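Progress report, Aim 2. The chain analyzed during this reporting quarter is listed below.
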Amino acid sequence: MKKLILIILLLASVHVFAQDVRISGTVKDADGNPVSNANVNVKNKNVGTTTNSSGLFTLHAKNLRLPFTIVISGIGYEQQEVQITSASQTVNASLPVKTTMLNEVVTSATRVSQSSLQSPVSVEKMGQRAIKENPSFTFYDGLQSLKGMEAVTSSLTYKQVNTRGFNSTGNSRFLQLVDGVDNQTPGLNFSVGNLFGASDLDIESAEVIPGAASALYGPVAFNGLLSIKTKDPFKYQGLAVQLKTGINHVGETGSSAKSLSDFALRYAKSFNNRFAFKLNASYLTGTDWYANDYTDISASTPVGQRGPNNPGRDALNIYGDEVSKPLPGIGLVSRTGYEEKDLMNYDVYSLKLNGALHYKINNDIEAIYQYNYGRGTASYTGSSRFDLNNFVLQTHRLELKGSNFFVRSYVVGENSHDSYNTRSLAQFINRDWVQDLNGNVVSPADADATWFNRYSAAFNGTVNGVTPNSATAARTFADQGRFLPGTAAFDKAKDASIHNYGLSGAGVFSNSKFYHTDGQYDFTKAIKVFELLAGGSFRKYSMFTNGSLFDDKTSKIKINEYGTFLQAGKKLLDDNLKLTASIRYDKNENFKGSFTPRFSAVYTVAQTHNFRASYQTGFRNPTPVDQFIHLNVGPITILGGAPKNSADLNVYQNSFTSASANAFQAAVGTAIAGGTPPPTAIAQNKDILIKSNVPYIKPEQQKAFELGYKSLINDKLLVDVNYYYSSYTNFILNTVVLNPQSPVLGADGKVNPAAAGDLGAGNFHLYQLYTNATDKVSAQGASMGLTYLLSRGYIAGANGTLSVFNLGTANINNIAQYNTPKWSTNATFGNPNVSKGFGFNVAWHWQSAFDWYGTFNGVRPGRINAYSMVDAQINKKLPRANTTIKLGGSNIFNKYISQAYGSPAVGAIYYVALVFDSPLK
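Predicted structure tokens for the chain:
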């Protein structure tokens, strides 16, 4: 790669008949008004400038060979090309208004620029105009209106997006890039929405590929890709400021309306068209949505007996009450828990700082350094509700790019700071105050057992002054000394547990990083006969949790993986048929390599009617946690599936299945109860035991077929239809095994009596192993989108998506949770300029009901009801002041909706925004 860059630099220094040019001009619209901040770029060169508030521009460049072409473009205008034949030419350009961009230029589908109409796979784009006119509170919230996009809200500052099924609140199957940088956190192994990333002011566009994109983007793009592009400081100069304030929690029971605010600033400037920089700062703050669903979900209580009066109640968003015990003569009783609002930090914020330096080495090559700092607080729904409190994510990016290549390196680092597990927090607080029957506070290790003893004594009438046979009176007595929320004792116990990591506290510690380098080169101009693109990547994970999650107290966990791809394309039949083939090879040091091919064909009829077909593949490497978690939680050890993680334990090779062990222990117990001596009972029933056959973990796999049609009819109606079918294998799952001290099998290949004796004597350890399911499942779906340009600038759009999951003969416990509604629809209607600078936009979303499966509820189903929501905004543009005033709201009818079981219900946000955007010349 170093040699390649050197060759490019040498070639770039050779300019035959080149000369210095200084052209100037004016850019106006069809009515003669100046167009500010229009881009003026030399075609196929890294040279350009922008117009000032009067529409004037000057472009000064060295070593350009005449003649050449400049491309003039502006938001909301048709693009114009002008040929330059003189080194001091004056240009007067007029840009006709374009109401919307129905034929967008996209890059993510093939990693090179092309018309979205001729994309070989489904692709959605939100351009700059759509971002500006977005009615939702933030740009990221507005992504849900894109066709096929799914969104799940865990927090005011954290929303997760996905496409084509197998959704989750922490989605490690969907890749999110910001300027080519993977926005995932190294420890969580998924992107935390837009808690970190780019501010709304700096986003130029967002593209979405629904479905498998591993052939070009590697292992994380299993379900799809979101690629966010920020604004180039050469093209977008000047000062931009956004002031937004609003309210949420409107009309909520037990709460008054809360204020929230979002401030953003962007400044960019270039010097001599060679050096440019940009600075961004944004800060969003408010009161988070409350998770206050207190439905009793006790798995040990019949459904008809559940409710607020159930002594064994396990409420969904109350924590600590999942600690329960069946008491003789009484029944199931759970400890008194704490509501989430007393444990979670609901004062959330998102701080994003960004700085970038751009230097044009010559007319073809540009060097970039970018630094991003993000810090914030959000609530996340996983196996528990986690408080990502003061979580920090930092990235450094270095990039060298030209018209046909780029080389990029970056590092992503995290610090979890004060983050914690609320369920664990409640349990630890509950163990700090329990008194025995003499009024003495017991140790945390004895607290739960002592609390149940107190409850039993009070209920059975052995405590003076307590009404016997009363669950309420018994609980009141058992809770004597309980730390009450808001007291100094409660706050002290809470803080101590938050900053205690591992098994002895609720704190979550990670100071992990990953290093990534990738690049690509387009050989098309050199070959000419066909298109050829090649690229590759290398990533190193460096994990550190100080023993709280991995066995890494003395040495960090390091993982290397790399990938390389080729893509070739050829046009046939008078350029009406485009065939493209891609293949990628990826290798993680802990697994066999994976090939992921993609084949596609696009056939164009009558210039605007495009039919496409593709075969796509996807794979997902197990995350670092899947590979190397090593967490001993007392009776069971959670163990990642990388071979080296259990090299000295002999667990995968020497263990019994938990199902056979349970059956064995039940049979032995029955025999002993019938008078059989224990050794005899064990010997008679040992053959019930089954040796486990748990393979080491490996990547998940997907194969997908897609058919589509996309057309622009009469420059007014955009039609996009697609159908897909996907099959999945090797879903990552957990299985429990029993590891005895003795070998599982004897020399005769049968169950070793000594190993069976170990189980009877308790000489074994439980392990929860990460592995893969052999079951195969499939999913299919279809979507259709229509966008129509009405008269006088009105724009109407609608789309609908059908998603169907086919479990077949697979075991539901071996499959990732689909978590996707069968039907979802969106509709939009707006006009950026109705009259005298006034505009508006309305977006409506509806989706059908479905069951949500997640670890938060023990992978038991929780119903997500069908819902609809409407976002709307009206705005007034003040061109002379370079300012827009916007009044709007998300979910304006204030219907409180939950998008994932256990996550908070989300209501309306009403806001007013002031946006100042002044180009600088």
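The CA atoms of residues 18 and 723 lie 51 Å apart. The first helix runs from residue 2 to 12. These observations will guide the mutagenesis work planned for the next reporting period.
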